[in-house]
Amino acid sequence: IWLTHTLEALHAPLPEMVNFEGEALEFTESRFPFLDEQLEEIASKLDAATEWERDDPDEHTWNWFPAQQKKKNKAKEGLSIGTFQADQRQISGMLELSPGVLKLTTNSRERAQRGQDELEVLLHGLIGPPLSKLQTPDQLLSENETQQQGNGRMEPTDTIDPELAAEIMGDYLDQHYRKCLDEPIPALGDKTPRQCASRKKDRAKVIEWLKHLENSEFRRAAKQGGKPYDSRWMWEELNVEKHRY
Fold first, then answer.
1. What is the pTM of this model?
2. b/e for 113-144, b at 16 or more Cβ within 10 A?
3. 92, 85 Cβ separation under 8 angstroms
4. CA-to-CA distance for 158 and 115, rounded, in angstroms?
5. CA 214 to CA 220: how far, in whole Å?
């Protein structure tokens, strides 16, 4: 009888699953691109925000505790799933900060959107638009079954299209650097790159700054894969392209 019941349960469809806010359970991952040199500034802003708390003081990881969490009506039948900290506070999402990528994970697409909105306000000007993916419980189980090998080991996969990720990163860097050309830069004595390029005595500073940006891009591309950002247009915009090589 036990065996028959177990086999029937294994082949039965999954029950409806929701989080504690009554939202359909979907495992989401949102990746925000940023420049490596802004990592510490991003970490500082997250540490100062009341809704984000470090999970480990020695790691760049945070738990998300929104100020207000409104519950919706849960499904009459099904499973309600959530994640809690030791003090029984409900965790709405988790953040992981690594060079060039800020990753937000949640268990519903609604939470993912709320988290994205909060991060874009908190880190305005420091991060680019997110690239997201999601999986339903059914899809996750199906993927696990197809990945399972004879030796019991799992092979990792990443469903985010690398070409799309590169395109989003490129768009973000275009906007970021175009804005930088008209903003005071501490490395340039709080002058804008355009101001330095137009003055003979400051031109060497902006050339050095441009070379530093290119070297940083080569290092980022080497770490993350893909092609480095093509900053040739910036040299031309500032009329210093003859000093590039």
1. 0.57
2. ebbbebbbebbeebbbebbbebbebeeeeeee
3. no
4. 21
5. 10
Q: What is the pLDDT of residues 113-151, one digit of tens each?
A: 999 999 999 998 888 888 888 776 566 555 555 555 455
C-alpha distance from residue 200 to each of 194, 196, 240, 245 (Å): 12, 8, 11, 18
Compute how many other C-beta atoms are within 10 angstroms of the C-beta atom of residue 169. Answer: 22
In the numeric block, the tokens 């101001």 are attached to 195
pLDDT value at position 213?
85
CA–CA dist 14, 123 (Å, integer): 38
Distance in angstroms (rounded) separating the CA atoms of residues 127 and 116: 11
Structure-derived torsion over alpha carbons of residues 163, 165, 168, 170, reported in degrees to the nearest 10: -70
